[in-house]
Automatic annotation (TrEMBL):
Membrane-traversing stretches: 359-380
Protein name (record): Putative membrane protein
Lineage of origin: Bacteria, Bacillati, Bacillota, Bacilli, Bacillales
Keyword Membrane attributed: yes
Taxonomic superkingdom: Bacteria
Residues of the FixG C-terminal immunoglobulin-like domain: 161-240
Organism, scientific name: Brockia lithotrophica
InterPro entries linked: A-galactase_NEW3, FixG_C, Ig-like_fold
Domain Alpha-galactosidase NEW3, first and last residues per copy: 47-121, 266-341
Keywords for this protein: Membrane, Transmembrane, Transmembrane helix
Pfam families: FixG_C, NPCBM_assoc
């Protein structure tokens, strides 16, 4: 009977040793000291340069005060420290059946490979708490200049504004010069926190928001313009290309070389006016047709050429308008409207035309008056003495 009892005791001791051997290190160590550590988030995602803080609760599960030294095991190149009450700590004492809180702060290095990394809180050779940090992207000691929206569209009168992010992924504070390679006539302004700047200082692993405003020249042509923008510091350059799409605007002006809008003409005669067509927009005008409106009865207006096929932005074209007045036109002022019409734009101008009697009719009138005067004089001469 005693032999059976000895065997049972031996089996129980062996089972206890086996159970102790397979317990997780964190649980085993915590049980040894009577302290349990808890944090709700033990597996988190991080980026290079991040600083992560874990709030940890230490619970004393015994009826006596328990104290133990604490340390952190982290991958090489990582920084980790334990703090409580604003100070670094290297040990902890917890009253019976009470809880104490402290924090673990982990700094992920800027240069790190993508993958999973373990951080442990240990006491001596025992692991009390294990944490896993997943680095979601590979880190480099570089500068990044990015924007969510690099393409904008507007007219020649628009101002294009872009929001950029400048990230310093180095361990030192950097001062960056802000530069742009814009086409001639374009105005580029950098703003940080509402102020115009030409440079910006960024702390290690920090990001600055920069607003870039692009203003095109007033006579800019329609099209797509690419403007490289960069941030430069010693040994490093980050660049992003901004794109501004200028929509065409349409405008047409009709005038004369000296902008005089009046002339004179004799009844039955003709007068040629030189007209100037100007494209005041930023896109070409096609098939501009000339026409006369409000033409007095019996009058005739012709154009040479009748149609202008293409007129580029900022360019002018000359058209001759020949006006022929009715031979029965009475002397005085007449109003004539000339217009130029394209599919994209149109323009018109009103001219004052003064009709003068021809010299021939003046001579005829003079002769008639002279004949009447002579006839009266002859009648007086012959019959006046009677």
């Amino acid at each position: 009977m005693a032999g059976i009892t000895d065997r049972r005791v031996a089996l129980l001791v062996f089972a206890g040793l086996l159970l102790f051997a397979v317990l997780p290190p964190a649980l085993a160590g915590a049980q040894d000291e009577g302290i349990r550590l808890f944090t709700p988030y033990i597996h988190v995602a991080v980026s290079p340069g991040d600083t992560v803080t874990f709030d940890i609760t230490a619970t004393n599960t015994t009826g006596a005060v328990r104290s133990l030294p604490l340390a952190v095991r982290a991958p090489e190149g990582w920084r980790a420290e334990l703090t409580a009450g604003g100070r670094k700590i290297a040990g902890l004492a917890v009253a019976p059946e009470e809880k104490e809180t402290f924090s673990l702060t982990v700094e992920v290095p800027l240069k790190v490979e993508r993958g999973s990394y373990g951080v442990q809180i240990v006491s001596g050779s025992s692991t009390l708490l294990s944490l896993t940090l997943d680095v979601t992207e590979a880190g480099t000691l570089q500068t990044e200049l990015t924007s969510d929206q690099t393409n904008m569209e507007g007219t020649a009168s628009s101002t294009f504004s872009y929001e950029l992010r400048l990230r310093n992924r180095t361990p030192e504070t950097q001062t960056y010069a802000l530069l742009a390679n814009a086409p001639e006539g374009w105005n580029v302004v950098f703003r940080v926190e509402g102020k115009d700047v030409t440079s910006v200082t960024v702390e290690p692993n920090a990001t600055k928001r920069i607003t870039v405003s692009l203003t095109p020249p007033s006579k800019v042509k329609a099209g797509t313009y690419k403007i490289p923008v960069r941030a430069e510091t010693k040994g490093q350059t980050a660049e992003v290309t901004l794109e501004a799409v200028i929509r065409g605007t349409y405008g047409l002006k009709l005038t004369t070389p000296n902008e005089v809008l009046s002339t004179d003409i004799t009844a039955g005669g003709s007068r040629t006016l030189q007209l100037v067509l100007e494209n005041t927009g930023s896109a070409p005008l096609h098939r501009i047709e000339l026409a006369a409106e409000s033409v007095p009865m019996g009058w005739e207006v012709t154009f040479d050429p009748k149609t202008v096929d293409v007129l580029e932005p900022g360019k002018t074209a000359t058209v001759n308008a020949t006006i022929r007045a009715d031979r029965k036109a009475i002397a005085g002022d007449y109003v004539l409207t000339l217009s130029a019409n394209a599919a994209e734009a149109s323009a018109s101008q009103t001219f004052r035309i003064t009709v003068k009697t021809s010299l021939w009719w003046g001579i005829v009138g003079f002769l008639l008056i002279a004949a009447v005067v002579f006839g009266l004089w002859e009648l007086v001469r012959r019959y006046g003495r009677r």
